[in-house]
Amino acid sequence: MTFRMGTAAFRDEDCDHPGLGLRPPDRAPDLGKMPTVHTQAQKTLNVQPKRVPMADLLIRDVTLPDGSHTDLGIHDDRLVDASDVIHARIIDASGLVALPGLVDLHTHLREPSPHPAETVASGTAAAARGGFTAVFAMANTDPTADSPATIARLLRLATTATAEVIPIGAITVGLAGAQLAPIAAMHAAGVTYFSDDGHVVMDASLMRQALLAVREFGGMIGQHSQDHQLAGPTACLPDRRSSNQDSRKQARLDHGPTAPTDTSATVWPRVAEAVIVARDVQLARDTGARVHVCHVSTAESIDIIRWAKRHRLLVTAEVTPHHLLLDQGLTDLGDTTFKVNPPLRSEEDRFELRRALADGTIDIVATDHAPHTSADKALPFPQAKPGMVGLEQALAVVMETMLAPGLMDWSGIVERMSYTPARLGQIATRQGRPLTPGEPANFVLIDPTARRRVDKDAATSMGRNNPYDGLNLPDPVISTWWRGHQTFSTQAG
Ligand SMILES: [Zn+2]
User: Fold this and answer.
1) How far is the CA of 306 from the centre of ligand 1 (A)?
2) How remote is the CA of residue 320 from the centroid of ligand 1, in Å?
3) What are the structural domains, with CATH classification, of the chain?
4) 335 burial level (CB within 10 Å; 0-12, 13-18, 19+)
5) How far is the CA of 117 from the centre of ligand 1 (A)?
6) pLDDT tens-digit profile of 67-115?
7) Are 416 and 357 in contact (CB under 8 A)?
8) 368 an active-site residue?
9) Contact, 145 vs 137, CB < 8 A?
10) Collapsing DSSP states into helix, strand and coil, what is residue 107?
11) Which pLDDT tens digit goes with each residue over 6-34?
């Protein structure tokens, strides 16, 4: 089966996992001719201009994700061969690692909105702080991004952003789950990824129509998997109470045939996620269209996604940094910072999420960066808004949970946080590219040894709902570069 992603067609049989190649892009896009510039130095020395006679920046002795060392030249918005660089500003990067700019497929930028908890400017500044050069903006704004006009409005706001902003279109009008949004018209405005995130598309028939609509142009539907009958609007607490318990045994106690039915409206049972994932996998099978499972939180969902990949269906999935690191016990404390949707889960779930991310069952890490005002979090737990920020600590958390224990190396992190999200979002001609001459100069310089205690009040994001506040975590990002421009630096005042 062949499907189209960006400008290149990938065949399923080429891929490590059915439906999605995990190889880095092997063919550079046509990036146009590099300009030929005659520098004063060359004129004086009577040196014949080379392909790229002058570069703006030379990064010396940097380590690439595969462990090799190199010098990176940057001229304008492109990487160039270091030997072609003359009169460059030089950065000594010995001991530092260069990664392709990170790509987040799940960001809530909160604009447009009359009273935004984040702006495109502050959100993309937070993205740059975290090493991201591209973010996909979720559609649950005010107004909802369910029309070409709102998509255009977001893109206008993004013209001065410090990272590329790619709009996600709503699946249904107003995220109400009743009427299909104008998917074809939004696609004509440049949208390829559609999601009602924050809400599930409960109506299976409507979900099927949406999948058929995006299949026309090789698009993708992202689902916030939360069965509303099983986990309603006030659902917020996980249904396993302690990570110290034997969770399989606890699951039997909670859900076995003799278990009493928990009627509490505040419980967000794990089955509410799995039943939607299972349904959508079957709809992907039926339609041949691409389903992306947002923020997977349970071992049961992973089982279903693994089954879908074995059957070579076009099903992909993401995990958030907070579900990789944080335990459901935190929600017992009543601190609404830890209220998130789906809720934090058990130790066993975290272990399974890490394993699934390592083996490729889960394709990418996506932040679900969800800033809220302090007022929206200063409510009783069931009424407080769900969500937590994530852009600035995402890489740190992945280093802590995946790199440090040896579950994943830098190349794996690049796959899950840059190459694959760029390919899924169909921006792989300009983001998620290897760091080789001719490619866009989108990269992040990392000090893999730096650590720091997280201080939520020192955040770049407007959101203070930071679940990592007070934790000692890696603090790797030294500088972020997008199209050859520095968008973040620890040196900046
Ligand atoms: Zn969601």
Assistant:
1) 21
2) 10
3) 40-95 (no CATH), 102-434 (3.20.20.140)
4) middle
5) 17
6) 999 999 999 999 999 988 877 899 999 999 999 999 999 999 999 999 9
7) yes
8) yes
9) yes
10) strand
11) 333 333 333 333 333 333 333 333 333 33
Which residues are in the CB-under-5-Å shell of ion ligand 1? 197, 224
Distance 224 CA to ligand 1 centre (A): 5
CB 372 within 8 A of CB 463: yes
Dist CA 13 CA 17 (whole Å): 8
Cα angle: 51, vertex 55, 60; to 5 degrees: 115
Cα(450) to centroid of ligand 1, in Å? Answer: 31
Gap between the Cα atoms of 350 and 346, Å rounded: 6
Neighbour tally for 121: CB within 10 Å: 16
SS3 at position 252: helix
How close is the Cα of 215 to the center of ligand 1, in Å?
A: 22
* DSSP, res 330: G
Task: Name the burial class of residue 30, with classes exposed (0-12), middle (13-18) and buried (19+) by CB atoms within 10 angstroms of its CB.
Answer: exposed
Confidence (pTM):
0.86
Q: Which entry of 146, 368, 376, 475 is annotated as an active-site residue?
A: 368
- Closest by CA to 341, choosing from 108, 82, 149, 155, is 108
Give residue 490's Cα distance to chain centre: 23
